[in-house]
Amino acid sequence: MSGVRASGAGSRTPPGAPVAPGIHLLPVPTGLPVGDVNVYLIDGERPTLVDCGPRGAAPLAALQAALDAHGVRLADLGLLVVTHPHPDHFGLAAEFVRQSGVAVACLDAGAAVLEDWDAWTLLNDDAVHHGLLRHGVPRELAQSLRADGHSGRAYAESVPVARTLRAGELLTLGDRTFEVLHLPGHSPADTALLDRTAGVLLAGDHLLAAISSNAIVARPFGDVWDGRRPAALLDYRRSLRRTRALEVDLVLGGHGPPVTGHRALIDARLAAHDARADRLLALAGAEPVTAHELAVRLWGQVAVAQAFATLSEVLGHLDLLIERGRLVEDRTAAVIRFRAT
């Protein structure tokens, strides 16, 4: 939801051009508001793809054409690495497996989601619907959003995971060695690949040049959940600080141009979080208020049209205020309310 632009964001790279030696950017249309997704082709005897775009005829045709332009057939691919289990990043994976038998790799934390997409989305739909009602979204609107969630499942399908990755392990792709990093926030399984020698980070949606990644409040991955709301923004801020400490010259994100000057961009994102939290505290006033009421005060009708996205944004910043002792949460009633201390 929140967009922060920074001078260190980098410049647009021509489609298919190498963004680093042996790494090519292949933009793939999604048909979604986010626009193109960046797929990365890593050269090697058996080339590697990092992400693949959403399920659909147009993304498939675009990605096949981009691979053809590089003289790469689907059958040539050795590995498809998924940075996180969101449909715009893995939706085509099952089709690629059917056509070529390519091995799919992802972080161990996200493997179950990829392998049973329908089951997880049903669980997540239930959790999101319950959360919307608990945070003051009117029932009719919550039901409408649930129907929209059902339609969104079509952008991906279940895919077998041939290789599960663990944080800290080394992954050899072509003539590069990458360290697998787990940087949760945008999703619980956000994965980045770090080439320390070259100073290159393949970051998925963890750090984007033109927009700040939404720390989505959704059901945690895994079979067991105690019902507590995940503090996605707090997780994301911890991950951003870890990334800030890395010695990298180039961050290749899942959307938009490459990032140079990652520390300045991260500082701007953290400062924007602080500013939005202060704004929400001012909007809260003296009386207890729901998260949805705060979203409407901040965004007006946008908070109705995009109720889940705006609620995720607000809840993340309310968690930040709670952590700082400036807000308390009352969960005793059916609808949760927040009050300034």
From TrEMBL:
Metallo-beta-lactamase domain segment(s): 36-255
One family name in Pfam for this protein: Lactamase_B
Gene3D superfamilies: Ribonuclease Z/Hydroxyacylglutathione hydrolase-like (3.60.15.10)
Superkingdom to which the source organism belongs: Bacteria
Family annotation (SMART domains): Lactamase_B (SM00849)
PANTHER family registered for this protein in UniProt: ENDORIBONUCLEASE LACTB2, METALLO-BETA-LACTAMASE SUPERFAMILY POTEIN
Record's protein name: Metallo-beta-lactamase domain-containing protein
Species, as recorded: Paraconexibacter sp. AEG42_29
Top-level taxonomy: Bacteria, Bacillati, Actinomycetota, Thermoleophilia, Solirubrobacterales
